[in-house]
Write a structure and sequence with these properties.
- It is a single chain.
- This protein is of the alpha/beta class and about 160 residues long.
- Helices cover about 25% and strands about 25% of the residues.
- Helix 1 crosses helix 2.
- It starts with a helix and ends in an 8-residue tail after the last strand.
């Protein structure tokens, strides 16, 4: 039970950090958040929607309907290569003149592997076309609870 409480506490911290970052980065713009996650973690999309609401962003979540019952999920063998489910959070009106802030979130249950630079030089970047462009990567496989592995915003810096 203590492990469950620790996991839930860590999950709430991660959720709050993600919501705060999205709200800050999307200030004054319409919002579109795409979330790719294993079906077992689809509830994260609803939790993030509620967290964005609590921070003043009126939005709603468009999530796919579950095609299996809970008993099917228990009987199904665990697979390491589950196709992710996609949910979308939409907030604000997006007319042709409005700017839309788009962010992609990926929840994974194993430690994500990012392409490394070939020479070790931090200024040299390696681009792997098989790794999707993701703004936020959350690792639900970390033994200490959910962890943020990557968090990038596309803010314009004005000097």
């Amino acid at each position: 039970m203590i492990a469950d409480l620790a996991f839930e506490t860590q999950e709430r911290k991660v959720l709050a950090t993600v919501a705060d970052g999205i709200v800050t980065a999307a200030a004054g713009r319409a919002l579109r958040v795409a979330i790719a996650c294993p079906p077992a973690h689809l509830t994260f999309a609803g939790q993030l929607t509620r967290a964005l609401h609590a921070r003043g962003r009126a939005c709603h979540c468009i999530a796919p309907a579950s095609t299996s019952s809970p008993s099917d999920d228990l009987a199904a063998p665990r697979s390491t290569s589950v196709d992710p489910t996609i949910a979308v959070i939409v907030g604000g009106s997006a007319s042709a003149d409005d700017e839309v802030y788009r962010v992609s979130v990926c929840l994974t249950e194993d430690h994500p592997k990012f392409p490394a630079a070939t020479s070790g030089d931090p200024t040299e970047e390696s681009h792997d076309e098989t790794v999707p462009a993701t703004d936020i990567v959350l690792d639900y496989g970390d033994p200490n609870g959910p962890a943020i592995r990557q968090f990038m915003t596309h803010e314009q810096v004005f000097a």
